[in-house]
User: Fold this.
Amino acid sequence: MLYGYSRKKWETVSMITKGIKELCAEAEAEIESVTAKEAVELAKDEAVQLVDIRDIRELWREDAVPGAIHAPRGMLEFWVDPESPYHREVFASGQRFIFFCAGGLRSALATQSVQRMGLQPVAHIAGGFAAWKEANGPTVAKEKK
Assistant:
């Protein structure tokens, strides 16, 4: 929100033209989504790499998915870009990347972003880590460092 001055008082002025629901719906229309049940099976394939984009505190609190790499949402595009000083080689491996967050919203946006960058093939887990747990996907404690 922005605050602007009117003749009477300071008032809240909304400048948002598109909300998160619309952004996520647009992302979902552009990307591939897999169910958590499908993701549990896909995780067994060596050609597939699960990518957890949650904040590290979420992993400490809620656990992690065995074999998934942690790529925090705030660094993802930097880690994917081979021209970035932060590039991570795993993203040049040619694997299929399946992103997830806590509930599937951030991962939809993240998947759309890396897909637009040219990373392929990519998908995200509909419902995120919560759906993974509901599908009885394995979890492990994330050690605090």
Remarks:
- Residues 19-134 form a domain with the Oxidized Rhodanese; domain 1 fold (CATH 3.40.250.10).
- The mean pLDDT is 93.
